[in-house]
Amino acid sequence: MLDFTLALYLGFQHPSWSLPEWSSLTLGKPAALEEPPGIRAVERHLADLTGCGDVMLATSTLHAFFDLFAMLGNQQTAVLIDRSSYPIARWGAQHAASGGSAISFFSSHDLVELRWVLSRPPQLRPLIVTDGLSPATGITAPLAEYAKLAALQGGLVLVDDTQALGILGVSASSFCPFGIGGGGSLRYTGVYSGEVIIVNSLAKAFGVPVAMIGGEAHLIDELRRHSVTRTHCSPPSVAVITAAAQALERNKLFGESLRARLARNVAYLRSGLKKLGVAASRSLFPLQPLRIPSSTAFALHSALLHRGVRTVLQRNPDSSAQLSFIVTARHKLGEIQQALEVLTNALESGNRTRDRQELHV
Questions:
Q1: Is the pLDDT assigned to residue 360 strictly greater than 70?
Q2: What is the pLDDT of residues 111-121, one digit of tens each?
Q3: Which residues contact 45 (CB under 8 A, 6 or more apart)?
Q4: DSSP β-ladder status, 211-215 and 287-289
């Protein structure tokens, strides 16, 4: 079975034999009392990688956004959410609403609408919420412009950069489309602003189910002191911290070659999809949606699965269906070519079936 559903973009999988042994999976106490061993070294490495003043690890992005909105949200703040933002950030924003924050939405990357929303009374401190990179389009958010608008009213930009971490970096070019380093959207866009806080899961490119919060050192220090999840929830396990340290070291040693292989693989798939007339994305982001009618997505997904190719079937916010391939650095060109051949046969078979149905109408 050819699998194009894994979001392990760089191919990191961390089998048990690859990790050092640990004497205890957990300390049995919250991080507010004692931090797990190795966690500060990982946080420093992530701060250097992403360009943040400091980083705090969290069990998940939901924990991270819960803490952020608990600290930042109140009756003097307004949460402004880019409509394309991932749902977890919105769930965190609901916690801010319970503290009195007003919540509103604006169209994806629409600076004109955002300025209009910010100009409406009452003039509250804005918390602008966005994804650093949209997986649907492969386009980065206008972070510099968001930061400038937030700064005018003493606000902040909260960025879910999960999709970009490990992929995007500095000095992107036609020869190095993702850039170098894998530090994420801040590195890619050159934004080094005190008005930006990033939240990342390491579960995509780095293959580790743990999250980080990065920003100015004084903000992260305040978050460590006021975090409710560090007091009332279990911290990341020693196993997860060990895997994160391993992933960051592998990224330092092999990341550039893995990103180059990933870019090659995505380009190869896109070229084949373009020849079939079903390429929907113009970017090299690993998630590649197909440009097909929503009404045929489920049937095509089933046909591909029956022929030995797993793809991602998603429901869009408007309830339409979307079929996509996710490419990783582990895929071989021969596997991608085989998947394209299966897709070609499935599309031709679907067209013949529709032609016969139309003849009987």
A1: no
A2: 999 999 999 88
A3: 245, 248
A4: unpaired
Dihedral through CA 88, CA 91, CA 93, CA 98, nearest 10? -160
User: What is d(CA 170, CA 190) in angstroms, rounded to the nearest whole number?
Assistant: 8
277: left (phi over 0), alpha (psi -120 to 50) or beta: left
Is the distance from CB of 79 to CB of 97 less than 8 angstroms? yes
Cα 218 to Cα 14: distance, rounded to the nearest angstrom: 33
What pLDDT, on a 0 to 100 scale, did the predictor assign at position 305? 97
The first and second tokens of residue 209, run together, are: 């189910």
Indicate the residue type of 6. L
Measured CA to CA in angstroms, residue 196 lies from 51, 126, 169, 201, 246 at distances of 11, 12, 17, 17, 27
Q: Which pairing describes strands 54-58 and 102-106: parallel, antiparallel, or unpaired?
A: unpaired
Closest-CA residue to 169 (of 151, 192, 185, 191): 185
The residues pairing with 131 across neighbouring beta strands, listed in sequence order, are: 160
- Could you write out the DSSP letters of every residue in 243-299? HHHHHHHHHHHHHHHHHHHHHHHHHHHHHHHHHHT-B---S--SEEEB---HHHHHH
- CA-based nearest residue to 51, from 141, 173, 177, 159: 159
Could you tell me the CA-to-CA distances from 226 to 66, 71, 191, 232, 342 in Å, in that order?
12, 7, 27, 12, 54
Domains of the chain: 30-250 (3.40.640.10), 254-359 (3.90.1150.10)
Q: Is the pLDDT of residue 359 over 70?
A: no
